[in-house]
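Hello Y.,

Per our agreement to keep a running log of every chain we model this quarter, I'm adding this entry. I've kept the format consistent with earlier entries: sequence first, then predicted structure.
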Amino acid sequence: MGALTRWTRSKHLLIFLAAKMVAMVSVQIYTVLQSWLVLDLTGSTLALGTLLMMTTIPRAVLLPVGGVLADRLHPRNLVIGTGYAFALLLVPVALLLRAGGLTLGHLALVALGMGLVTALYIPASTSILPDLVEAGFLQQANAANHVVLMLSFFLGPALAGGLITAAGTSTTVVVVAGACALCAAAAHLLPRRREAAERTEPSGAFRAFAEGLAVVWTNRVLQGCIALAAVLNLAVPGPLQVGLPALAADRGMDPSGLGLLMASSGLGQIVGAVLGGAFGRNGRQVARIMALGLVAGALWTAIGWIPHAVAVMAVLAGAGLWLGILNVVAATAIQVYAPPHLLGRVLSLQHLGIVGLQPVSFLVSGWVMEPFGTPAVFQASGVVLVLTAVVGTVLMAREHERVEVRSAG
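Predicted structure for the entry above:
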């Protein structure tokens, strides 16, 4: 009952989560529509892949800038501004679709703009959470934030097909733009409990970002969380996005079967995010969470050999559950240990590892599978997960011992 009361009192968090859900679902709908439009205009998967990279590259390059701006301008202002900016980006697309003059060049410009907008939004959307809830409720807020993100990946594509078919392409773009603008308007209701960074900070963006790097350099908890995100996003996305389609093709599965395989991982992450809100942040608890990765990694190595699809789905769901818990615990630890006026910069470093290494994971997975086959990419990835779990378990157990010794002294 106490937890329910805290949720109902966190009206600002509920407003933020509702707005984020609508915004993220809208972005997913546009992503599906963009892919359909590119293939309709060119018939080229190479053109589609190039367009997706045009979104990813500016996002990765500009994430540190987004972290600096989140600290200097306050994350609430960036959440508002990026919502309106995305809506404005889509206005020309809707008009050109209505007039029949849309080209691949127009979509490419919008893709670049999306990369810029999301680079500013990502650090702000996480660093704003401490302003919306009391400190003791922060981990539950991170869990809810991650659940919203994962749900949007399911709901967006599911709604996109029906909306595009029923309303048409130009009307779909108008709906998406209007939804993003409404979400930005809703963000005006959010508070500003934390002041933006002092003007005495280093004036240059590079020097300001370097200050965030210096904080991470001296804090082992922050180093561990950022390194964990980097390693996991090097080891996992490639096998999921490249390895699973190859596995499904090798076994003669249809697209619906592939969808079930991918959905099982996402479902595990949603459940893990919910459970992550209930875990403590002390060293012993986190060491236990890391130890679960030994089982997840060991099973992951066998995915390429497991004969039954249901068993593969179970392994993917179990690994996803572990990843979901880790995401929540790591995000909360960063928010707790990073200085408030540098939180955006520290979070941008974490997201930089995530966004920057995912394309590398895709490329490496393709290289591994070409000469060695599909099972090899899961074996290599599973070994990385096991090693990550071993190192994380040992380090967190030692940290717990140090805290206990310090408390006893």
